[in-house]
Amino acid sequence: MSVSDYTGNVVRAETITLEARDELGVLQHYEMKGYEARAVQHEFDHLDGLLFLDHLVSRRCDLFKRKIYK
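Given the sequence above, the corresponding structure tokens read:
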């Protein structure tokens, strides 16, 4: 993970619509919501060179040390 010791509150859209071309070049439309929408937005951020840290409104209030479960 990009920032393995930390997690944070990031505001993301609950639903998204994506248009992309498949392997044959045919335009496809995708509607996503919930976890799937959040995951796609997260991956697009990586393609743009962004980390979740770049979306935090306040590092003081929205950034947390990740809990370690044993």
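The chain has one domain: 6-63. Try to locate this feature in the token string yourself.
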